[in-house]
Design a protein that fits this description.
This protein has 17 helices and no strands. By secondary structure, it is mainly alpha-helical. The protein starts with a helix and ends with a helix.
């Protein structure tokens, strides 16, 4: 139970810094003069950094262990958030966004394998809990940052404090993670076993059509999330809403994501290994939400946020389980999940650029919502290809040995799960 609590505490840090800037967009722009295209970079840069670092995370974990790698990622997030308190211009904000994204990518690369080996019989429940905590952190960022900014700065909104406050959460998570050190040996990769572990590199996934299919689907699904994080509060600001009201809608969406991320994997598991019907359900929910925005249907903002949050949160958590289900070995599954996240987040990073460009060309968000709805329509038939009866066939030969030697990065944390 204590180990699960620390996992949740770590996961809360993986989105809060990302969602905190969107509700404070107007005071940030007024203070820094940051342009409309650069605003998209506050979401694009960290997402791209997440993807790039996710691909390097396995190598870092092999050298310093999962405990050290995740601690390094949390340290990067905390330092990046703290630096925002003294950020004086757009360059400093963008630099901090990229650094925090790199820290998140490192954590996300190592944590799925840890969860799979620590809880092999409860992978659906624990992956859902981990995913829910990630999204819950996003909700905290959207709601708490504008509140703190206005509480400390009044009408002027102290956006520096609103953005930097998440360094405190990162510090608490880092201390909690390092507090497990006495029970966890710091297993580093030795020269004697380096060669076998090279077979677990995500580079081997380049030749796998299934790995690319997972990455594309994961990226397109998360593109909807990154676009909403970047533009949904601004969309409502154009209708006269305050920053806190816009942030509340985003927070409500992430609250629905939390519920869906917790419920969908466990619910799907109770009916077997086939996740396709449940993935289809989450995509239909996304389609309904984007259609409501696109056609300005007489549905409340809260209703739209809940439907979109359910669709996005459920799809994210199910995709994580989907990748881990393809291979029985935790280290191999972790490498495949790292590849999916790495390139998937790079794909997702492009979505705010596309939707922002469409908004700028058309003067509104109607066509941007239409684009996101079209992406969901494309995803629906792709999801039909994830038949669990064919997992062994589509991953055959992906790694040399049928039973690879587990990475030291996973046992170093697994020992803690057994002792705490």
């Amino acid at each position: 139970m204590a180990f699960a609590f620390v996992i949740v505490l770590v996961a809360l840090n993986l989105r809060a810094f990302l969602t905190s800037s969107s509700p404070l967009l107007e005071p940030i722009r007024q203070a820094t003069g940051i342009g409309f295209h650069a605003v998209a970079l506050l979401t694009v840069l960290p997402m791209f950094a997440m993807g790039a670092m996710s691909l390097c995370g396995a190598a870092v974990g092999q050298r310093i262990g999962a405990r050290g790698g995740i601690a390094l990622g949390l340290g990067a997030i905390g330092f990046a958030c703290a630096s925002r308190y003294v950020a004086g211009g757009a360059a400093a904000l963008l630099w901090s966004a990229a650094l925090a994204g790199a820290g998140v990518g490192l954590v996300q690369a190592l944590m799925p394998g840890v969860v799979k080996q620590a809880y092999p019989a409860r992978i659906g429940v624990m992956t859902g809990l981990y995913s829910a905590a990630i999204m819950g952190g996003g909700g905290l960022g959207a709601m708490a940052s504008p509140w703190v900014a206005h509480a400390l700065g009044g009408a002027q909104a102290d956006w520096h404090a609103g953005l930097a406050m998440w360094a405190v959460l990162a510090a608490v998570a880092l201390l909690s993670w390092l507090g497990l050190r006495r029970e966890v040996p710091d297993g580093k990769t030795s020269a004697a076993n380096t060669a076998p572990r090279q077979n677990l590199s995500w580079l081997r996934c380049f030749r796998s059509p299934r790995a690319w299919l997972l990455a594309v689907c994961f990226g397109l699904i998360n593109g909807g999330y990154t676009s909403l994080v970047a533009w949904l509060p601004h969309f409502y600001a154009q209708q006269g809403w305050t920053a806190q009201e816009g942030g509340s809608v985003l927070a409500l969406m992430t609250a629905a994501q939390v519920v869906a991320a917790l419920a969908m994997p466990a619910l799907a598991r109770s009916f077997g290994r086939d996740l396709r019907p449940w993935l289809a359900l989450t995509l239909v929910a996304q389609l309904a939400g984007f259609a409501a925005l696109m056609f300005a249907l007489p549905v409340s903002a809260a209703g739209v946020a809940i439907v979109l949050g359910f669709g996005l949160g459920g799809a994210f958590a199910l995709c994580m389980v989907l990748a881990l289900d393809h291979l029985p070995d935790p280290a191999q599954a972790g490498a495949l999940a790292g590849f999916m996240q790495g390139f998937g987040f790079m794909i997702a990073a492009l979505a705010p650029f596309v939707t922002g460009w469409v908004r700028e060309q058309t003067g509104g968000f109607t066509h941007a919502w239409a684009y996101l709805a079209a992406v969901v329509v494309v995803l629906l038939p792709l999801m039909l290809r994830f038949d669990p009866r064919r997992y062994a066939v589509v991953t055959a030969g992906l790694f040399d040995s049928p039973r690879a030697v587990p990475s030291t990065a996973v046992p170093s944390v697994l020992d803690n799960a057994r002792k705490v």
